[in-house]
Structures are given as C-alpha cells and as structure tokens.
What we know:
Elements: H1 9-38
Amino acid sequence: MSEEKKMGPGATLVATVIAFLVVTAVFYGLDHFIMSIQGLPLNMDLTPAS
C-alpha cells in the first residue's frame, strides 16, 4: 500500500518558491556558461546594451 503525504498550503508555497529559485539559478548558470564559451561579457546584467 502506498501512502501519499499531503503538503499543507505553507509547505506548498515554500516548495514553489524553492523550485522557482532553482530554475532561475540554473537558467542564469547556463546563460553564464554559454556566454563564456562565446567570449561575451560576463556580467549578470542581461539587459541589451543601449
């Protein structure tokens, strides 16, 4: 028999925020990695140059 554990609303919110932060960190990490391979400037400000 499998028992499923239900998360409360607080735990669900925390899990959602943690998942969002992990995805954001992975995105910026991949972007930083790809930019370094291409020899582009490596600052964390990803806005286009004006």
